[in-house]
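Posted in: Structural Biology > Protein-Ligand Complexes

Title: Requesting predicted complex, manganese (II) ion in pocket

I'd be grateful if someone could produce the 3D structure tokens for the following input. Sequence and ligand are given below.
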Amino acid sequence: MTTRPIRLLHTSDVHIGGGFRTPDDGDHHDHCLCPLVVIEQQVKAHAVDLMLVVGDLFDHQRVTRDLVDEVLGRLGRLGVPCVVIAGNHDVHDDRSIYVEGVAEQAGVIFIDDPDGDTVKLFDGALHLWARSMPIHDRSFRPLRGLPPRPDPAAWWVVLGHGHLEHTEDDVYGRSSPVTPADIEATGADYVALGHWHVRTDASTENVTAWYSGAPYGVAASHQMNLVDLHPVHGVVVGSVPVELPTEGCLPAQ
Ligand SMILES: [Mn+2]
Ligand SMILES: [Zn+2]
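-- Reply #1 --
Done. Output follows.
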């Protein structure tokens, strides 16, 4: 591996628009943007190169266009590239909130192709693949249909929002399944997963894969993954805490 070091911050399941009134999380209003404030702080504090939001950025498709514009606009102004994919709560179907051009105008990279798309970043030092979720059922396989590793000298990062089936007998018929074999077959340096709200190591023999867990809300991990892709140290996965006030929402900065 001859490529440059890249540090990424990985979150998912932010569920903006869902409200956050839980005993642990304090009194946050329905359109609480506190997780975005944390993203902005952590990107700066840790000199992050790339932000990943791996599905369910929004809680539902009834959020207003103004809220979508505000959230994507802030992600687009992080000062680093930000890649967003759809999840089952903000699925990219004919009622998608990610209408044509909305992410582009905001300066966010939204992967909208259900067959998958590769994005090249940092002058080709990192190649990233994901497919958009057009439907959340058993037919949708988040990590299938990707091309072979495009450039052995570049980092290869794959994103997917779905349910991990650990073993053959751990098949409950959940939608958007991901198997360890799917993860292994990506050949990726890092697979960034979303959908589980608990931070989980899903790595296989040769592929590092993690759920970041949700930053906030019921049963959340209150963490984001901080991942170093390093030519000498390899792929190092750490986490940063999501510490939010219990006394109402953080002001925008
Ligand atoms: Mn989900
Ligand atoms: Zn809040």
